[in-house]
Design goal:
The complex is a heterodimer of chains A (253) and B (472). With 253 residues, chain A is of the alpha/beta class. Chain A has helices spanning 53-60, 82-91, 107-117, 123-136, 152-164, 182-197, 209-215, 233-238, 243-252; strands at 15-24, 27-37, 42-46, 68-73, 76-77, 92-95, 170-174, 201-205, 218-223, 226-231. In chain A, β9 (218-223) and β10 (226-231) form a beta hairpin. Chain A is globular and about 55 Å long. Chain B starts with 23 loop residues before the first helix and ends with a helix. Chain B has 20 helices and no strands. Chain B is mainly α. Chain B has a domain at 66-81 and 258-472: MetI-like fold. The chains are: A alpha/beta (253), B mainly alpha (472). The interface between A and B is medium-sized, with 31 and 25 residues.
């Protein structure tokens, strides 16, 4: 993966992990992870809790640092180099389980913060962009409210708009619907599905099997920090190979 | 119920509205006389209260000998401030009122516009609300004016307040673009007031440089430059402004009375205000430093905080008075007042640091992660995401510390600064007041502190409530 010529950009995978290990103290959270995510691919990561799914995607934008192996995002390798980290964070968007909107800023300010501060966009331009994104997640009328005044589903859609405001090349979702009331899950999944339809590269940790089945181009199953099985969604739902995958699928279906 | 009107579930009928407010008699029966024990207690405490009020009123209006206060009112307030320079205070108060009025109007107009954008109804705070919120201050003013012998002070206070109100109205009437200019005018007013009062000394020079530099950067904002040269151009602009202001200051002599020569309640006020303003950034830095990844910074912060917090303020004041000067170049020794303000700043900074640290810890980890994930740099994560939330969480504690500092300014008397308590002592050295009104002067001093401290406390509660609106 040393080839980083721009001419080769379209063919180059978006995210590459090679032999990645991650420890929390003596606990090994990730074991020898190898994964390649191609452009426009939607990868859904499944697995029981504590299997390292969240840690995996949090390593990709360096919210956690990996201890061994290589991680590259769009040709940029992650290391302790602060510039590389900031570049990668500019290329990646992340949506959290708990939304993590900034409660002291309005919806509009939440979204314009990154364009204005990181990309140095003038205010009116950033606000135009933010309104377009709010249209896209279907809540333009909430622009002037504070996050605390919105429902969970609305907050999560604002969080998606906030991540999109940096115009990322890859979006990562860390259990985006797990903190939502059942009736709000669909509105968030719909937005995610539309996003996938626009050709966005996505890595989603989720328990939404319907979403995995319909939207994913590939499903990754993890257990105890390892990737156990990778395959087409249909393969997983009808005929998984590994014993651990079978057991997990039986439990949740 | 007709078919065209949708049924209102809150209308009377099946669903009764909220219960009616009880009458005063019913309320008293319910809460004060609901059983025998409570009735006895109510009567006893009520009797005690009545006695207390009668005694208090008799002291205030009949037996109290307020002559020492009345005679020495100027001394208590202004101490030995040169009488021929008093016009400087008058001008400063006018300018300050104008600045505060502009500031207040700007804040009101800002929240009015935000409410309009959000489609929320907005009720403008009336002057009446101001009086209700600040009544202890107004009572203090009334007491002070009631004790003066001429009408001049009344005219002065009334006109200054009127100026503030007019400035506020003016600011509210301005469009948003105009308000930005008016903020600058407010800064200039505050600066000029301080300037005229205290001359060229001390912080006025820095303040003026900052204002001019800010204006210069603002005005040249839209000049197109090569992006590479922009930081250098800005730096040159700021440096140039500072140099020009410095050159002007070096040439001029404004006269004025610096705080070294202040005394009386004025000294308490300026010492407390200066220490509060200066201690805030010190505390912020120490709090952030204590959480730094760099061990040297962390140890330095912890050392500062723990050493200062372990030593009584009085001890520190003595130390500052005796040997703070040794650490500094001797040719231009710091005045007694400046040294005292430095000590109070360092003292309060250490306590603020611990308060702010508590606030920093209250900000959820996810906030930092979300800010990092959208690519904000570490200083921006701290300044735009963490600190605003951390500080809001600790407003009551911060203001509590400020109130403490204000009251602790009376400790300046023990290093022989003539603040209000020491002046009060000297009043009873006057032959006619040796044993007259000893309690009364103390009560007066206590009331002056209470009126301001209580108002600060109430305002902080109000600020806390307001900032909580619309948050999670």
């Amino acid at each position: 993966m040393t080839n980083t010529e721009p001419t080769n950009g379209a063919a180059r995978p978006m995210v590459t992990l090679e032999g990645v290990d991650k420890f929390f103290g003596t606990f090994q959270a990730l074991r020898n992870i190898d994964l390649e995510v191609a452009r426009q691919e939607v990868v859904v990561v499944l697995g029981p809790s504590g299997s390292g799914k969240s840690t995996l995607i949090r390593c990709i934008n360096r919210l956690e640092h990996h201890d061994r192996g290589r991680i590259t995002v769009d040709g940029i390798e992650l290391s302790n180099d602060v510039r590389a980290i900031r570049q990668v964070r500019r290329l990646t968007g992340m949506v959290f389980q708990q939304f993590n909107l900034f409660p002291h800023l309005t919806v509009l300010d939440n979204i314009t913060l990154a364009p204005r501060q990181v990309r140095r966009m003038p205010r009116h331009e950033a606000e135009e962009l933010a309104m377009q994104l709010l249209e896209r997640v279907k809540i333009p009328e909430q622009a002037r409210k504070y996050p605390g005044q919105l429902s969970g589903g609305q907050q999560q859609r604002v969080a998606i708009a906030r991540s999109l405001a940096t115009e990322p090349h890859v979006m990562m979702f860390d259990e985006p619907t797990s903190a939502l009331d059942p009736e709000m899950i669909k509105e968030v999944l719909d937005v995610m599905q539309e996003l996938a339809g626009t050709g966005m590269t996505m890595i989603c940790v989720t328990h939404e099997m319907g979403f995995a089945r319909e939207v994913a181009s590939r499903v990754v199953f993890m257990d105890e920090g390892e990737i156990v099985e990778v395959g087409e969604p249909e393969h997983f739902f009808t005929d998984p190979t590994e014993e651990r995958t079978k057991r997990f699928m039986e439990q949740i279906l | 119920m007709t078919a065209t009107v949708p049924p209102d579930p809150h209308a009377s009928g099946d669903h009764p509205g909220p219960p009616p407010r009880p009458t005063a008699a019913a309320w008293a029966r319910e809460n004060l006389f609901n059983n025998r024990h409570n009735s006895v207690l109510t009567i006893l405490l009520g009797a005690g209260l009545v006695v207390l009020v009668i005694y208090g009123a008799r002291f205030l209006f009949v037996t109290g000998q307020w002559e020492p206060v009345r005679t020495n009112l100027t001394l208590l307030m202004m101490g030995t401030f040169p009488r021929e320079e008093q016009w400087r205070i008058v001008v400063q108060v006018y300018l300050l009122c104008a600045a505060v009025g502009l500031l207040w109007g700007g804040l009101t107009a800002g929240s009015r516009d935000r409410a309009r954008d959000a489609g929320v109804p907005f009720s403008r705070a009336r002057l009446r609300d101001g009086v209700r919120r600040w009544w202890p201050v107004f009572v203090l003013l009334a007491v002070l004016l009631g004790m003066t012998r001429t009408w001049l002070p009344l005219a002065f206070v009334a006109s200054a307040l009127a100026l503030g109100v007019v400035a506020r109205r003016l600011m509210e009437a301005l469009p948003e673009a105009g308000r930005r200019g008016a903020w600058f005018v407010a800064g200039v007013c505050a600066l000029a007031g301080w300037q005229i009062l205290s001359g060229t000394g001390g912080i006025a020079w820095w303040w003026g440089s900052a204002l001019v530099a800010a204006a210069a950067v603002r005005l040249t904002r839209n000049v197109r430059t090569d992006a590479r040269w922009q930081p250098a151009a800005r730096l040159a602009l700021v440096a140039g402004s500072v140099a020009v202001v410095w050159a002007i200051y070096a040439q001029l002599d404004f006269g004025g009375v610096g705080w070294d020569d202040w005394s009386g309640f004025q000294l308490n006020l300026v010492a407390a205000a200066a220490s509060i303003v200066l201690a805030f950034p010190v505390g912020l830095l120490a709090a952030v430093g204590r959480r730094s990844q760099l061990p040297a910074v962390r140890w330095l912060s912890v050392g500062y905080i723990e050493v200062i917090r372990g030593v009584p303020l009085i001890t520190l004041l003595f130390m500052g008075d005796l040997f703070l000067g040794f650490f500094l170049p001797t040719e231009d020794p710091l005045s007694k007042v400046t040294r005292a303000i430095a000590v109070m700043t360092l003292f309060t900074g250490a306590y603020l640091a611990e308060i702010v640290r508590g606030g920093l810890q209250a900000v959820p980890r996810g906030q930092v992660e979300a800010a990092q994930a959208i690519g904000l740099s570490a200083p921006r994560v701290l300044g735009m995401i963490v600190l605003p939330q951390a500080l809001r969480a600790v407003i009551p504690a911060l203001v509590g510390q400020f109130i403490n500092l204000f009251k602790d300014s009376t400790l300046l008397s023990i290093i022989a600064l003539t603040e209000i308590l020491r002046i009060r002592e000297s009043i009873h050295g006057q032959r006619e007041f040796l044993i007259v009104g000893i309690a009364e002067t103390l009560v007066f001093v206590a009331f002056a502190f209470w009126a301001l401290a209580f108002t600060m406390s109430r305002e902080s509660q109000r600020l806390e409530r307001r900032l909580g609106v619309g948050e999670r």
